[in-house]
Amino acid sequence: MNFNIILLVLGIIVVTISLYITVKKEDNIHNQDIHSMYIEKEDKLNNKLNFEIDSIREDILKMQHQFTDAITSLEKLVEQNDNKYNPVNTSPEYIEGKSFKNVLNYNKFIKKNKDIISMYNEGKKSNEIAACLSKSQREVEMVLRLIK
Question: Tens digits of per-residue pLDDT, 84-142?
C-alpha cells in the first residue's frame, strides 16, 4: 500500500507540474501578444507625432521666411521714408539757408506769442484773449491758425 500511495502522490505531482507549466506558457504567450500589440500602438502613435512635428516645423519655417521678408520690406520702406524726410544734402549752405532758419523763425514766433498760446490752452476764446492782451481779435485768430 505504501507503494501505491507513493505512486499516486508522484502522479499528482507530475500532473500539477505539467498543468502549471502549460498555464504558464499560455500566460507568457498571452503577455507576449499584449506586449506586441502595445508596441505596435506605440509605434503608430510615434509615427503620427513625428509627422505632426515635421508639419509644424515646416509651418514655422514658412512663417519665419514670411517674417524675414516682411521685415526686409519694412526696412526698405523706412529707408525710403528716411531719405524723403532726411535729405542727403548736409552742406552748411543748405542747413543755414532752409531748415535751420525755419526752425529759428518758428521758435521766435512761439516765444513772441506765448501769452496767446497759453491762454488758448487754458480754454479761453479768441475775443477774450484779445481783450486781456490789448491786441486785435484778428491778430489773435491769425496766431491761433498758425499754431494749429
Answer: 544 334 344 444 445 555 666 777 888 899 999 999 999 999 999 999 999 999 999 99
Q: Which of 142, 139, 116, 118 is CA-nearest to residue 129?
A: 116
Q: Which domain holds residue 127?
A: 92-148
pTM passes above 0.90: no
**Residue whose cell numbers read 516765444:** 111
Residues 28, 99, single domain; the answer is no
Residue ending a domain, among 86, 115, 132, is: 86
How far apart are alpha carbons 72 and 39 in whole angstroms? 49
The rounded distance, in Å, linking the Cα atoms of 143 and 75 is 39
